[in-house]
From TrEMBL:
Name of the protein this chain belongs to: Enoyl-CoA hydratase
Catalytic activity, EC: 4.2.1.17
Pfam families on file: ECH_1
Top enzyme class: lyase
Cited InterPro entries: ClpP/crotonase-like_dom_sf, Enoyl-CoA_hyd/isom_CS, Enoyl-CoA_hydra/iso, Enoyl-CoA_hydra_C
Alphabetic keyword roster: Lyase
Family, per entry: Belongs to the enoyl-CoA hydratase/isomerase family.
Source organism (scientific name): Sphingobium cupriresistens LL01
Amino acid sequence: MDFITVDKADRVTTVTLNRPEVMNAINGGMHHELQAAFDDFASDAEQYVCIVTGAGDRAFCAGSDLKAVAERGAHPAYPASGYAGLIERFDCDKPIIAAVNGLALGGGFEVALACDIIIAADHASFGLPEPLVGAIAFGGGLHRLAREVGTKQALGMILTSRRVSAQEGLRMGFVNEVAPPEALMATTHRWVGEILRASPMAVRASKQVVYRGLEEPSLADALAHQADYPAYAAWRAAEDTMEGPIAFAQKRAPQWKGR
């Protein structure tokens, strides 16, 4: 990998955007390296949670590398799962957490929004400033932000290209927790630890039920159809689903197998 690093330890994959000299801006090569990293995480039965962060303390990701775009005369072709190999990755039921260690602008904010949880350093900031350079946030940011914070709040950011602080992101609802920069990764790993206490099969089923249920036309439809969702069906048939009650009855910690 030339533009990212990938570390695996204790069921956790950490993907670090590693171009700090350009605030971790994403070029064509990084798009495809990220696709490969997330493909590997999704398919690795030993990996349960993914953390995405940026190298250095200035930026999580400043978005697309516009200098590279100007030199090529066009944006690079995106990989199979879309921008950064993530924004159109709708089939990964494992949790993905963004640890935002600075600026998350444009495509960088879109990457964070595509994660399930956002933990932000208190100096982080977020924005979709694409209109300032004659572009739009077509990497999912317009859709996800409006769905997560409501139309008026989202348009307030989008139409003005306004940047908001981590604290405002927490108030708006797209940030889960704000931490001092030196405690960002420790805070993120605390969230990971809390996730890992639970059955990975139940966690994945829960994530899939939430996202698929939101696509249903009504709550009644979501409840009626959830038994047909693949991760729900896998959870119903899993060894882990019986391990929980057995461990509770035996007054011991459950031994999750992820199957």
